[in-house]
Amino acid sequence: MLPFSWIAAVPMLLAPTPTRAPAYTLDVAAPRSGSANAAGATTVRISARAGYLHIQGRPGITEVRAQGTAHASNNDVLKQVQLVVKRTGDVVEVTVVTPDQSGGGWFTNGFGNNSASLDLTVEVPTTIPLDVEDGSGDTIIRGTGTVKLNDGSGNIDIDGVIGDLSVDDGSGDITARNVRGKVTLTDGSGNVKLSNVGSVISGAMDLAT
Fold first, then answer.
1. Region 48-63: what's the mean pLDDT?
2. Least enclosed by CB within 10 Å: which of 2, 71, 92, 140?
3. Given 3-state DSSP classes, what are the helix, strand and coil percentages for the chain, each rounded to the nearest 5?
4. Would the pTM of this model clear 0.85, i.e. be above it?
């Protein structure tokens, strides 16, 4: 383990053009939850969409537990925001389903603008690799096994990975520390801070001390 401390400076030309915030809001909410047996599983695959995502490793557990709060602009849309947790073969899948299915959480149904998101917390065994895809919103990962993360937008904060870490990020700041394996990063825009990690492999980004 080498005590690396890196800061990435990404050219401002890569930053996305700011857009005006939608005039509509998320004003109804409801809880969502699910779980699945993870004994003997080889992968936990998490597909989140708009909303906050927190993944927490738990030593000794043998199931994946997910819970969160669905938000929507109205009750009709809220009913369509679902959390599906299931096991298929040796893969445990945690999937957020929203009406738009584009990851952004904003869509039009022909009767005006609507919006939906799901703030999600997932507890996973520390020994099972994670394959995570997140649409938008901040992501926090703590105390897990190997992580592969594909993130659209939002800040990423990772602490304590027993294995390798691979991040492909569109926009937002990345902070990663206490990673035992190699770190592979591909970042569109935002600052990157790494500390107490193994070897670092830079993808489409510039690393500077």
1. 96
2. 2
3. 5, 65, 35
4. no
